Amino acid sequence: MSSGRDYEIFVQNLQQALLDSEEFLKHKNIEIERNKKIADNFGILREFDLYWEYELAGVSYKTIIECKDYASKVSVEKIDALIGKIRDIPDLKPVFATKVGYQSGAEAKATNNKIDLLIVREQNESDWYDKDGTPLLKYMNVDIQAQLPVRIIGFHPMIDGHWVKANTDIDITKPLGFESMSNEVFINDLLKNDKFSIHELENRLRNEYRGKYGQHSLNYPCENAYIETPEYSLKLHSLSFEFHVPKPHSIPFTIDLSKELIGVIEYLNKDRKTAIFRENIVRSW
């Protein structure tokens, strides 16, 4: 962060994500304003770094945050200055934010004047440990198992020659070309009232042979089954096929949660920290 303006935007983004994550506030579409000018009781405009308001049960709640991008702890004089700015503006909730911390006199003065003190900063190594020193989850090792499709590698229909002679004038001594039109070949099992394509058969085999990797062969019962194409519908004498069930493809990767952590808010009055991650994910401890 190179300037006070950058720090204001940093605090604004974290606080906006926090508001958007609050269950009873996220439907109110609260927008945080920067450099908000508010007239006090004497008509004097006072400017505040950040400001937002919302209404709940007919009552308006107004909050301001003064942001100070200091390399050292905030002094009591800075707290006094904020007290002076808000003295003649009723119903404001004052909050102070800085990166490093506050002098003891500043903390006492803020507490006595009901000013919430925040340390809003980027992450450090301490944020990956609980209060009792227990390490928090920082890395997630994920292994995605991609189930590859089953493939039929041999398809052998045998036509019922007696049925063909009795019902058609097709010369079954010549190739019928099933192999070249596999996308249009269907098995119609009238006994089971079941009709399926070769592609559908592969999907069924994937479910039935899950975990049974390697090559397999099957004989399909053909009591009253037909092979159908756009040109033919022929009674089957028998049907056998070979198929291959491939092993799943493993895709391991590691999620580094520290790269998803945008910043941390420490609440000095409450001895609590909140971490703001991308996608408005919030974790407090």
TrEMBL record:
UniProt cross-references to Pfam families, sorted A to Z: Mrr_cat
All copies of domain Restriction endonuclease type IV Mrr, residue ranges: 60-118
This protein's record includes keyword Transport: no
UniProt GO MF annotations: endonuclease activity
Entries under InterPro entries matching the protein: Restrct_endonuc-II-like, Restrct_endonuc_IV_Mrr
Transmembrane regions listed in the UniProt entry: none
UniProt keyword list: Endonuclease, Hydrolase, Nuclease
Ranges in a coiled coil: none
Protein's UniProt keywords contain Hydrolase: yes
Protein name in UniProt: Restriction endonuclease
Species of provenance: Shewanella cutis
Taxonomic classification: Bacteria, Pseudomonadati, Pseudomonadota, Gammaproteobacteria, Alteromonadales
